[in-house]
Design brief:
7 strands, alpha/beta, 2 domains, 211 residues, two-stranded antiparallel sheet
C-alpha cells in the first residue's frame, strides 16, 4: 500500500479570523461621525483604538480591554464617564456576518473549526454572551489570552496543537495579507478574505480538492 505523503493530506480543520472577517464594519458612518464630533480625522481615531501602544499591549494581554479604552478616552480629552458611550458609538457600524456563521456551523462534524483572533481580553465574553457564537468553534485562540499575536508563528503552532492537526490538514482565513503569508510559511492552506462570497467560494474549492 502506498504511504500517504504530506502533499496528499486532506484538509480536516478550518481556522477563521474574527475582526474583518466574521465581524466587520458594515457601515463606517457612525465612526466618521464620531471622529467629526471629536474634531479629529477618522484614521487618527482608528489608529488610537487599533494601532496605538495600549492597543498592542491589550492584544497580547499586557493590559485589559477596559484599561486600553481608558487610555483612548483620556487621549481624546473625554472624561471616563463617557467611555461606555464612546465605545458604543465606535462599534455601532460593526456587524456579525450571520450567513458566514451559519456556513461555519454547517462545517461542524465534517471539519474541526477554530477561531484565531488578535483580540483583547473581552472577546470570549462577547462571543459567549452577546453574539452567542462561541459554540461554532472547537478551539478559541484569542491573542490576549495566550500572550501571542499574529503573525507570530507560535500562535499558529498553538492552534495546530490544540486542533491536533498538521499544517497541511488545515486552512486559515484572514483579511490581512501578512497574516496569510505567515500561515503559508508554515505550510497551512490559506484564503485571503476580501468578501464573504469570495472567501466561501475559495474555501469550498480547497475543501473539495479543486485547487
Amino acid at each position: 500500500m502506498k504511504k500517504q505523503g504530506r502533499e496528499d493530506m486532506q484538509i480536516r480543520a478550518v481556522i477563521f479570523d474574527m475582526g474583518g472577517v466574521i465581524n466587520r464594519s458594515m457601515d463606517e458612518t457612525p465612526r466618521q461621525m464620531l471622529a467629526e464630533h471629536l474634531g479629529i480625522p477618522a484614521d487618527a481615531l482608528y489608529k488610537l483604538v487599533f494601532d496605538s501602544e495600549s492597543a498592542a499591549r491589550a492584544t497580547v494581554g499586557e493590559m485589559s480591554a477596559d484599561e486600553h479604552w481608558q487610555v483612548v478616552t483620556t487621549a481624546l480629552g473625554l472624561p471616563l464617564s463617557e467611555m461606555s458611550s464612546l465605545q458604543a458609538q465606535f462599534w455601532l457600524g460593526d456587524r456579525v456576518d450571520d450567513e458566514l456563521v451559519d456556513y461555519l456551523r454547517s462545517l461542524r462534524g465534517r471539519y474541526k473549526t477554530a477561531l484565531l483572533s488578535n483580540a483583547w481580553d473581552d472577546l470570549r465574553q462577547v462571543l459567549e454572551e452577546r453574539w452567542k457564537i462561541a459554540d461554532v468553534f472547537d478551539v478559541l485562540a484569542i491573542s490576549a489570552e495566550v500572550g501571542l499575536a499574529k503573525p507570530d508563528a507560535r500562535i499558529f503552532q498553538l492552534v495546530l496543537e490544540r486542533l491536533a492537526m498538521l499544517p497541511e490538514e488545515t486552512v486559515f482565513v484572514d483579511d490581512f495579507k501578512h497574516n496569510v503569508e505567515a500561515a503559508q510559511a508554515l505550510g497551512i492552506h490559506t484564503v485571503h478574505f476580501r468578501s464573504s462570497e469570495q472567501a466561501r467560494e475559495e474555501l469550498e474549492q480547497l475543501l473539495n480538492g479543486r485547487v
